[in-house]
Amino acid sequence: MTGPLREWRERIRGFLRGRRDDRELEAEMAAHLEMAMEDHVRRGMSPEEARRVAAVKFGSRLSASEGAGDQRGLPWLESLFKDLGYALRGLRGNPGFTVVAVATLALGIGVNAAVFTVTKAALFAGFPLVERNDRILYLSSGRGCCLSYPDFEDWRAQARSFQGMAVVHGVSGILSDESGAESYYATEVSADTFRLVGEKPVIGRDFAPSDEVAGAAPVAILNYGFWERRYGKDPAIIGRTIRMEGALTTVVGVMPPGFSFPQKQDLWIPLMRTPDLLQKREARTLWFAFGRLAEGATFEGARAEMETIGRRLGAAYPRTNQGRNLLPQVQTFNEFFFFGNENAMYRAMWGAVGFVLLIACANLANLMLARAMGRSREISVRIALGAGRWRIIRQLLIESLLLSGAGGVLGWWIARWSVRIYEFADRGPGSTSWRILDYSMDYRVFGYLIAISIGTAIPFGLAPARKLSKLDVNAMLKDGGRGSTGGGRANRLSGLLVTGEMALAVILLAGAGVMVRSFLHLYNADLGVKTENVLTLGATLPQAGYSREEARIAFYDRVRKGLAAIPGVESVSIASALPAHGASRLAVEFAGIPVDEPRRPVLSSLVIGPEYFRTLGAAVRSGREFSDADGTSGAPVAVVNERLASTWWPRENALGKRLRLFHGNVPGAWLTVVGVAPDIVQAGSTRRALGPMVYLPYRQEPSRGMVVVARTRVPPDSLAPAFRRTVQAIDSHVPVFGPLSLDERLRSNYWSQGLYGVLFVLFAGIALLLASVGLYAVIAHSVSRRTQEIGIRMAIGATAGDILQLVFRQAMVPLGIGLALGLVASLAVNRVLESVLVQVSPSDPVALGAASLSLMLAATVGCLIPARRAMRVDPANAIRHE
């Protein structure tokens, strides 16, 4: 036996170093090693002694480093590098496996890193460029919005948990200079706002306390993007005078690129401390206050202190500050700017991509297990030559880490592009988002990506490594590679992983299904109006020239008449807001119906013009629409919707009833109901409920900002240029928004729901793809290991249909169990989405049925390829298969 052993020593060494990798050499190696071991056993050695002596006689440098060589061979670092090189050669020699494994992990890791970046921006990061975001808290009244300036001054004077406080309030208007006129969005702020957030203008100066004194010369600080767009980053803008709402205003500074606080705005102006602002404690019209925590102060301490201050103010001013709902509310960035539904949506997205990652990990484990069992004879030879258990585990874990590392690098690229696409959708055309978020992929994202890359490699690469490290070497070498080498436990583990993939895929598909169904309900919801052939145009009147109500009424009268004269226009009206675009919320009192004064009911109100309901194709149910005379003479009037009439005057005629609205605590005039209109969705983009509405004639309350609606006999887009020309001819200083069709306006109003629906469908599609690939890999591996069995079955009479049934039976077991478990789990998981669903139940049978059908179709495709391969097996070749 000495000659053959010496002859094969160098050849085995070359094989283990990756110089050769064919099945014939592997079989010959195993045969010669088996013969050497049997020879020593016949001489009276134990099997363990025989294995060790044979390994010594093979005596290659590699075997010394793998077995006893761990004690007397190469240093551990050199050994580690040799394992790394061996792993790289092995992955390079099996490109199909490597590509599938890396692509699977890249998808799972990439979408996870992308969603983590988006979630980090929304829930953790706060405003870009704001120093130490976590130390800034946001304060408002207990209702979650708005406060009065006297309350703010008391908070600032009495609170010790904050090193400073400021107040902000959004405004809009018309800006004009030599570059022309345009509308602007601005934020009125306290003079120390930028100092509190830790930012300075890049050119010019900050606001000074003197700038907010009543009567001070108006000044403004520009947003960097607005400065770049309108003035071409001209540094001479500092000191230049512009006209804002007719008032000459001096530009004193420009903020840094990317800075915008607390919303998207064009510029900032100081909040003037006018006598009217200082005296009206009941007028809670300012947006919110914010404060930076003092050193050593905590969030809980600040909240408790502000509640104490609120109770103190309630006792001092019982008429305006009494009651639990007026206590100061202290919130973090996420709590204040992201409401319950949005928080639920972000967390649902994170959970969804977590499921995608788990499916990718299960795929990796299955692929590694299948590949490892295919290498069982190679590993047996290595063990027989002296490789220890830890050495085998380390070798396979290195391969797993290499795969997840490559997947992480590719996943980083996928994440970067995914975040860019999301950011474009959030800030690009059609977006209605007013928030400024930081979508940069910083060190936290990088750390998260590294963590999940390593986290996918170790636990899911460990199972096949531990399995192979426990191989029965004698049995494997005697088996010669025939039949299945996977073993019952390996097959059960593989089936369990596939079952888990199927269950997770069903959960994601069911979630995507209810989200899509919800969006379709939203998209196709009946608003109570006919949206086709309706053209809309928004206009905001500048303060200069339109400070008097008569001037506003005259302008809108001229607009209505001018647009109605355009050929193709059927009717024209105006309103303070479009359907599904919100409405004012005011307290109300009904004549003859006693109501507890502090608990007056609240309803929505809308200012409209004559022919409003006719233009929207919603004829009044009883009474009449407004006419041109309403609001100019006679008693004030109102039109109510059917919901209000049936709620407050059930089984009575609403015509002639009286009500009055409250602006703050100030009651308006008593209004007489002259008409009952159909229910039209007005408040909220989810279109769930049709609340009580009251409509007021625009001559009665003419506002500076109105929207024109016109029903056309021709496609509305064809009349857009004529509409713009007509309004500009009436007053070229009035900026026009649009014109756009009502359908386009509505689509932009629910872009976020559509975006989230697309994302969930994308996640579910990735999960479905990965699950079907995972099932394919398991079935394909099983078919390859059972080639002899399939050949024998066909040799004794099995038909192609029998073989097809055999393959599909193996796949249907994990599919059926995973489908059942996934459907049950989805009933619970979909509850997370309940708050954002529109007219769809979390257990919607259509969505669950579509999810089940999609998974079954994907599984069928995944099984069909290996099944067809099995059906084409040549029995003669299969029987000789080694």
Rough outline = elongated
Structural class: alpha+beta
Portion in beta strands: 5-15%
Number of strands: 22
Mean pLDDT: 77
Query: What composes the largest sheet?
Result: 6 strands, mixed, barrel
Low-confidence stretches: 15-25, 58-74, 480-486
Q: Going across the biggest sheet, name each strand in turn.
A: 2-3-8-5-7-6
Helix content: 40-55%
Distance between the termini: 26 Å
Work out the radius of gyration. 37 Å
Question: Can you put this structure into words, describing what you see?
Answer:
With 882 residues, the chain is an alpha+beta fold. The protein is 53% helix and 15% strand. The protein has 30 helices and 22 strands. The strands form 3 sheets. It has a 6-stranded mixed barrel with strand order 2-3-8-5-7-6. A 6-stranded mixed beta barrel has the order 13-14-20-16-19-17. It has a 4-stranded antiparallel beta sheet with strand order 12-21-11-22. Strand 17 (658-663) and strand 18 form a beta hairpin. Helix 15 (340-374) runs parallel beside helix 26 (751-785) and helix 26 (751-785) runs parallel beside helix 29. It is elongated. The model is unreliable at 15-25, 58-74 and 480-486 (pLDDT under 50).
